[in-house]
Amino acid sequence: MAEFTMELNDEQKEVRDWLHGFAADVIRPAAAEWDEREETPWPVIQEAAKVGIYSLDFYAQQYFDPTGLGIPMAMEELFWGDAGIALSIVGTGLAAVGVLANGTEEQVGTWIPQMYGDANDVKVAAFCSSEPDAGSDVASMRTRAVYDEAKDEWVLNGTKTWATNGGIANVHVVVAVVDPELGSKGHASFIVPPGTPGLAQGQKFKKHGIRASHTAEVILDNVRVPGSCLLGGKEKLDERLARARERAKQSGERVKNAAMATFEASRPAVGAMAVGTARAAYEVALDYAKTREQFGRPIIDNQGVAFQLADMRTSIDAARLLVWRASWMAVNGKPFTAAEGSMSKLFASETAKKVTAQAIQILGGNGYTREYPVERMHRDAAIYTIFEGTSEIQRLVIARTLAGVPIR
Ligand SMILES: Cc1cc2nc3c(=O)[nH]c(=O)nc-3n(C[C@H](O)[C@H](O)[C@H](O)COP(=O)(O)OP(=O)(O)OC[C@H]3O[C@@H](n4cnc5c(N)ncnc54)[C@H](O)[C@@H]3O)c2cc1C
Question: Where in this chain does the record put each Acyl-CoA dehydrogenase/oxidase N-terminal domain (predicted)?
Fold first, then answer.
């Protein structure tokens, strides 16, 4: 177990400064343009690939950092640059983690490189779980995967929605129902390889914020994938289903809401994204408050402004500490008995929404225009309380642990 410290080590500081440089020099200057265009910023992803930020190697290095701080630190810096562009850069990583966590070595080796492509021909990947009638209630998912034993193929049918990079991805990871009696215990994940017939992009959403990140429906119409595309393999799935059926028989009821604990370890990463956006808006507001003069003095000389900045900074630091704690717990295999992962995501995302609104207030009329970045940051921040589980779902999970109901 790594020794406890509140400081980043030298190697982490070096990586953080390198990422900060990329965020400041490449991401931030492009942010307003891609927000207006509402398109995937391919040239920026390509730049990230050239310097090694957009790659499995980089992501895996941060993911396996024994202190747990590699991923939150990277997320905070990239999202400090711009949330929409950063999500376009890290969205593939979120799909890749699904394969890393559940796939066999062969699946990792085959599919993850195809998710990223290479610096001359970058590709993206999508993780498709949400459906029109299955958002917070993951267990009500309807997309079906049926095994065709004669051909050793799985046949996928259904409609996914809100998929980041959905339809433009080279590789899609699709979660589908293999046994409807088992709720979310009856789900499995599949790779849909590039160019597979039957997979099509549906509606592309025009969004409030993170507009440089592509979000769309994914339609699956008799999509046939080889048996080898079931993540983890058939034997493991059959064992898992048998165990779940046995448990369901013993408790005499259909398994419900079982997926809620799955996200505890990944939620701090979203918290870190929120910290990045909040910090970015706070810095703009601080700088503005020191330079904008009214009544013959900088506006920061008014306690009403300075106290807001003090609260903003305090909340951001508190959010980061919650994120780091949960990330450290995840990497050290600590059980999330008080839903510490959800706590970090809840507090950081609510902080980002609040801090970016305060930043607009401190910039006055300028804050309300697209001439200054805090308007965009406030629109971007609204996503953090929605995706990877809404704030209400985080509270539900935390409350369950307080009430003594185990999170499964
Ligand atoms: C930009 C964007 C990108 C996304 N990217 C992805 C992606 O890549 N892959 C993917 O699979 N999904 C993705 N999502 C989906 C996201 O995870 C869902 O939107 C989210 O889980 C909420 O589901 P919902 O939108 O259906 O809202 P609903 O579940 O319908 O919730 C609506 C409201 O009801 C509240 N609510 C629901 N149940 C309860 C309850 N039990 N108690 C109290 N309140 C409750 C919610 O908190 C919310 O306020 C993305 C979404 C967006 C907007």
Answer: 9-115
